[in-house]
Structures are given as structure tokens and as C-alpha cells.
Specification:
The chain has about 280 residues and is α/β, with parallel strands linked by helices. The chain is built from ten helices and nine strands. It has a four-stranded mixed beta sheet with strand order 1-4-5-6. It has a three-stranded antiparallel beta sheet with strand order 7-9-8, with helices on one face. A two-stranded antiparallel sheet has the order 2-3. α3 links the parallel β4 and β5. The mean pLDDT is about 95. The chain binds pyridoxal-5'-phosphate. Pyridoxal-5'-phosphate binds next to loops.
Length: about 280
């Protein structure tokens, strides 16, 4: 296994991925669509095309992107898209969801070594899925039926909004949040608009901010933000989720809370510059 690492806030350049694929024969290429720790968005379409060009299976970790960022799995030639129920799909945690291409299924069928994980082994699940498609009863393990019902409801809501509208809403939320952060004079961890995720943002703290006190002040306004995640930069930035059912009012409340908390923690800025950006985009 070879790992290509990007500089913090950026993606691995496509040329480097291609160079690596050229250097020897690989079976698969796996990548994270939205990196939750830095709010960086990978170019899934181009990576899918590279996978096709070099005949490598592609696997997209879409836990922080599915139902928020646009993914055209078949058009882009991505073999496996996997996600979980609890992020942009908006269902309580507990379901692992994936869609596999015919190519991925065939590769799995030709597999000679056993899968090391019992519950995650497709050999156990495929007969159940096939029986389900044929409306026949079959059993491997009791599914989390309450979550499956919640998922059905959420998928109905997602389709009611329409995928294009939903992706557009996320793009606007991302753009508005980044513009608001910049209007307050803060920088973002992501290097530029092109590599910035639309499901969350990662602003850098101003110098000398008491980060714990800032997050607590935001929390007291009824808004929950996440701290930094990357070990080496943990205390230099925070994260704002804006995925799923997030609307204009949520964004206004969030930016308003950030503005107050910054001010109360000694950062001087003109109140209202951030919220104005949200209003501009919505
Ligand atoms: C949240 C997240 C995960 C972890 O999901 P769990 O269900 O907590 O295991 C993995 N990958 C990405 C990209 C995520 O955003």
C-alpha cells in the first residue's frame, strides 16, 4: 500500500496521483471526498477518470459528502461510494451504506482470499440483498429496522428537495460561510475555493484567542461547533458543520454566535460583517 499525502489544507495534485498509478500496477485507489478534519474537498470526478484510465478500482469515502456534495458515481466511474447515516444524510448513527459498481462486484466474486471481517463481508450480505430485491424473506442478522425506516424518510425528504437543489444549497452554504469567515478577518485552513468543502468549514483562530473560552461562548448562544482535529494544529482552528438540513437561519445563528464569541474574547471586529455575507448569499 502506498499513501500520497497532501499539504494541510490542500489536495494531492492529480499529476502526483497519475504519476503514482503509472509507476506500478495497482488494484485499487481509495480516497476521501471531503476530509472532515480539514474541510478540504477532493476532485472526485478527475480521480474517477484516472481510475478508469489506469484500470484501478476506485473507492470514495463519502461519509462527509454523500447527500451534500455532488457525486455522479456512474458518470465519474467510481466503483464504490460508501457513507454512513449520520452526516449529510441526516439519520442517527448506525448504518453503513454503500453502492458498488458491476466492476467492483465482479472483482469481489473473483476474490480468492477470505474477508477478514465477518459482519462486513459481502458474502454474508449479498444473498440477503438479492432476496430483498426479489421481495423474498432472508436472514443473516437482524437489521436496525428503526434506522432503516428513518433512512427511508430522510431519502424521501432528500428527493423531495431534489438532488440538484440540495447540492446547490450546500454550495451556497459553503460559499456564504467562507465569505462570512473572511469578512470577519479570519483565514480558512483550506487553501482556496476550489478545494474547499461545502459541508463544513475550518476557520483559523485569530492570534492569542482563548479557544476553550471561545467555544464555550458559542455554545452558550445555542450553537455547537467542533474543535480542530488534526493533531499538529488542533488548537489553531475550529470546525463548523453546515450539512444536511442546514438553512439560512441556521447559518445566521451560527455566524452571529461566532461574531459575539470573538468579540467577548477580545477579538476586535465590526459586528454584522459576517452575517451580512450570509444574507447576501441567501
Ligand atoms: C465522520 C467520518 C468518518 C467516520 O465515520 P464513523 O461512522 O464515525 O466511523 C469517516 N470518514 C469521513 C470522511 C468522515 O467524515
Amino acid at each position: 500500500m502506498d499513501i500520497l499525502e497532501a499539504e494541510v489544507g490542500n489536495i494531492v495534485p492529480l499529476e502526483l496521483i497519475e504519476q503514482q498509478l503509472k509507476s506500478k500496477s495497482y488494484k485499487l485507489l481509495t480516497f476521501t471526498h471531503v476530509d472532515t478534519s480539514t474541510a478540504v474537498l477532493n476532485d472526485a470526478k478527475s480521480i474517477g477518470a484516472l481510475g478508469k484510465k489506469y484500470n484501478v478500482l476506485t473507492i470514495l469515502d463519502g461519509v462527509c459528502s454523500v447527500a451534500g456534495e455532488e457525486i455522479k458515481q456512474e458518470d465519474w466511474g467510481i466503483d464504490v461510494v460508501l457513507t454512513a447515516s449520520q452526516k449529510a444524510i441526516g439519520v442517527p448513527p448506525g448504518l453503513a451504506l454503500l453502492v458498488a459498481s458491476k466492476n467492483a462486484m465482479q472483482t469481489f466474486e473473483q476474490r480468492t482470499s477470505p474477508v477478514a471481517n465477518y459482519y462486513g463481508d459481502w458474502t454474508n450480505w449479498l444473498p440477503i440483498m438479492k432476496a430483498y430485491e426479489n421481495r423474498q424473506a432472508s436472514y443473516f442478522g437482524t437489521p436496525a429496522v428503526n434506522l432503516v425506516i428513518a433512512l427511508e424518510k430522510s431519502l424521501q425528504l432528500i428527493l423531495k428537495e431534489g438532488l440538484d437543489s440540495r447540492f446547490d444549497r450546500h454550495r451556497r452554504a459553503g460559499k456564504a460561510m467562507r465569505a462570512a469567515i473572511k469578512a470577519l478577518g479570519l483565514d480558512l485552513l483550506s487553501k482556496n475555493e476550489q478545494v474547499s468543502a461545502n459541508t463544513l468549514s475550518a476557520p483559523l483562530y485569530p492570534n492569542l484567542m482563548d479557544t476553550a473560552s471561545f467555544l464555550k461562548a458559542v455554545n452558550q448562544e445555542g450553537v455547537i461547533l467542533a474543535g480542530g482535529l488534526l493533531p499538529q494544529l488542533k488548537n489553531s482552528y475550529f470546525r463548523i458543520g453546515h450539512m444536511g438540513s442546514v438553512n439560512k437561519n441556521d447559518l445566521l445563528a451560527t455566524v452571529g454566535a461566532i461574531e459575539s464569541a470573538l468579540k467577548n474574547n477580545g477579538y476586535s471586529h465590526e459586528l454584522g460583517l459576517g452575517t451580512a455575507q450570509i444574507l447576501k448569499h441567501f
